[in-house]
Amino acid sequence: NVNAVGSTNCDTIFLSGPRWVRFMGDSGTQLSTTPTDPNQCGTQVTGWYSGLMPAVTQTVTNGQVCFSWHSNSCTWSNTISVTNCGSFYVYELSMPPVCAARYCTNTP
Q: Keywords assigned by UniProt (predicted)?
């Protein structure tokens, strides 16, 4: 979540390859869609979605996740897929480009 303080945590769940993920609960329900400052989201390098969310239910769009580091809001990036499931989104995420990088979530 954007409110979690920074650490050196990594999203290692993606080591075996891309996975479809649905975010739920207090940590947030979707990827952040605005630049996030470094040292938030429980990590040093924060990932946020810079693409367009699919507007129509059951459609998929591809877009870019940017990873913020120092004063650059897009030092590294990954291409992901986002599916509109009506009342929520699911994301096909892959391993962030560097360790100490994680995907950032919030609740819209």
A: Disulfide bond, Signal
Residue ranges of the domains in the chain?
A: 12-106
- Give per-residue pLDDT as tens, 18-66: 999 999 998 899 999 999 888 888 888 999 999 999 999 999 999 999 9
**Whole-angstrom distance, CA of residue 11 vs CA of residue 103:** 8
Task: Answer for the pair 79, 93: CB distance below 8 angstroms, yes or no.
Answer: no
Cα–Cα distance, 65 to 30 (Å, whole number):
13
Q: How many residues does the chain have?
A: 108
Question: Two tokens at 45?
Answer: 């390098």
**Distance separating alpha carbons of residues 29 and 90, to the nearest angstrom:** 10
The pLDDT tens digits of the residues spanning 1-22 come to 444 555 666 777 888 789 999 9
Taking the C-alpha atoms of residue 42 and residue 4, their distance in angstroms, rounded to an integer, is 5
| 3-class DSSP state of 13 | helix
Side chain identity at residue 25, one-letter code: G
pTM of the model: 0.87
